[in-house]
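The aim of this short unit is practical: by the end, you should be able to scan a pair of folded records and say something sensible about each. We start with the first protein, listed as its amino acid sequence and then its structure tokens.
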Amino acid sequence: MTDTQQQDWEYSREIALPFELPLEDGRSLHCEEILRLLPGRRLVCRARDGHAQVLVKLFLGENSAREAQADAKAVRAMMDAGIATPILRGETSVRTKPHSVLLFDFISGARSFRQAWTAAPAPQQEALLDKLLCLVAAQHQAGLRQRDFHLNNFLLAPDGTLNAIDGGDFVVTSTPIGRRAAIANLGFLFGHLPRRVLHARAQVLRPYLEARGWEESASLLARVSAAADAFRQRRARRIARKGYRNCSEFLVRRKTGLRICQRRELPRQDLDAWVTATGLAPADGDTVLKPGNSQTVWRTRLGDAEVVVKRYNLKNWLQALRRAFTRSRASRSWENAHQLRAYHIATPRPLAMIEERWGPLRRRAWLITDVARGAGANRYIVEHPEDGNLQRLAATVMAFGENGLVHGDMKATNFIMSEDRVEVIDLDSMRRPLTAPARRARIHRDRRRFLQNWKGELRQRFQRLLGGGFG
């Protein structure tokens, strides 16, 4: 390999595996699995170094040496402080290339904290959170603070040890992190979790406070909560904006009068073949779920997957004129569905959003999502009126209000329920009002509309769960 030969691991999103990575010291790593990829910037993979399994962090670009040094500095600081982290085995570079390489012990069978948390039942989640708070406290005491807190930056080993990774994400100081910076950092942590987690039990911060030698106080909890809420809202906006630009998660393109935003895991060729074959209309064998002037909703197959398509129609020339200059309802639903991820409110995964475009002018629009599995809450609750089911549905309604979100149409059919999940649909009216009074008024209206779905005892039970005052 010469300086003029560019390898696909340097720039491509599609890297053929396995591949050989020659190192400056003469060794060659046999890379077998891609763990993280930022084309042209960073590549993390599992590799073989002789008979040993290692984790490789490859830094690309003009700042690769500086970024690798900062990463290694933070990892060494954690190792010196006795904080669990994969051992740094070596610092080197790619042969004949200006790319820095860090080699770490590979923890086989490890899961990210996010994966472990998602899969764990509630009691185990509490234990995992306590473990994470103790680890973060140790980092703060050692002068380490994460710039962009991320739950995937912690790995749970099969033996139960929680490890910190990704030293490049840390600010390293020579003194313990102070109270103000610690509160902001804890806000980032809890901002990645459902809002209820911080308020679900008393003394939730105790493991962190005891490790730092700090006293518990209501004001400290309130400050962490405010920081978490602010971070969660910023993260929701950031996630929503990503859906309109090319990145590792999304592909945005134009195709013969159409603007298409889609998830990268949805095969482009499958979507294009479906568009060509159907003309974006229900085809033979499809199930029409909702015919109508304003919307047509149907279930169809796209490649190997079953999906739901919602087409937003133009009822007349006046609406067509108005729609040409405003955001489409499909675009609002696409954005809102991605925002809900940050608030941990379940909705069918949005796969693609398509708009008819004539220059900057819009016409019809389509939203393609996974199929929501289950039945509308109007049917499910009547057939399964157990307390747990009512509590799950009420908790979803409450989650909107607690996060300052307004759904806009809380009829029971917009909540799809199964035995382990509540999914919210029909998101084109969802918004977060700018002012607190407007939020309170709209949330009150949302909950009052929700209660109109129920009569008699069911209504009374939901009213108690939502706290009353919405009759």
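Turning to the second protein, read its sequence before its tokens, just as you did above.
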Amino acid sequence: MYNKTNNKALLAFSMVFSGFVSVTADAIEARPHKVGNFDVTASINNALGYSDNAFSGSTVEESTAFFRFEPLVQAINETAKRRITLEYEGDGNLFFDNSGDNFLSTKLHAEYLAKVNATSEFGLGVNFEDGNNIRGTDILEGTNGIVDGPTEFTRQGFSADYRLGSETVGPSLELGYEYTDLEFDNFPEINFGRDYELNLFSARLAYQYSVATQLFVDFAYADFDYSDPFALVGTELDNSESSALAGVKWRFSRLTSGEVSLGVTKKDFDNINVDESVATWNAQIEWSPSSRDSVIIESFSKPLEQAGTGLFQEVKQVSVSWEHSLSQRWGLTTSLTTGSVDFESVTRDDDFDQLGFGVKYRTSKSAEWNLRYEYQDKDSNLAQFDFDSNTILLSFEIGL
């Protein structure tokens, strides 16, 4: 539904400017451990890398080696009638030449899913994130070393969803609600006015046309309530966002699967005479032309909240990744991302591109090495937001 798709879009967009991104197509297998009534799995991804422009500077480029570690722990208790999921995810970054930019982010998630009967289920979830954005991204784009350290924020909320109908035949209905409270914890002179509360309602009406094909319509209404006037425009950015999309979802054996939807999103500001309609689409397509090859195509167009410039961002992005298995242990990966950002109400437009390729070696079902090179480039009509970078990354992921 809309909320899950929107979260994926936000993640994909932030990854473009993260400075070092790893791509792994097949997740490693982590052996479950019995702890009470829960099956617990754990993994950790360690990465050692070097970037010649780690903080996306245009005139001041800072090169540094870095170390990144991402632990993940998940506990699941499942019966025929319900499932309980507890999850911890960490993200630590150490910059060898810029210790002031080091950070450790934490995400906690808990979910309860009740299977009411064969055709309906109800879920509740809670989330907490003590997060950071790397310097040179988000609100700190174009700072070129003027500020020190990452942007710190706290995000928390809860969600509820309900599904009615068969997943294999006939009509179905999915309803969702999500509440999010976002607060920025540092750089008050920059982040003042960016804290908000979000109430998001979503619905999907679907019809399972055949075993392999589903037709659906998505509706969503989001209300953003900002806490203070944003410093750059001197007014609160309270706004509502409504969207309607129609699409199709399919799975044809192992050859191809995916989901494509197209529609419009309307953004209406409470305190500013701005009422914009944005063409919106989402596409995720997986294609396996052979037993050794896997291609993933993803694309979206939608508005995102402002990040220091303009009232909001209209983002368009297309990414293609390809993995080729040389053998059971060796593989090659290639990815390409291109897109644009139109900052509404100001004369700023950005185009961005990212190219990466690498080689992976799986030592076992639960351990894998990746060596990857990435090039990123952003071209803006405002010179302080131009940058390019080269990054090389050696990572090792293991299931504990």
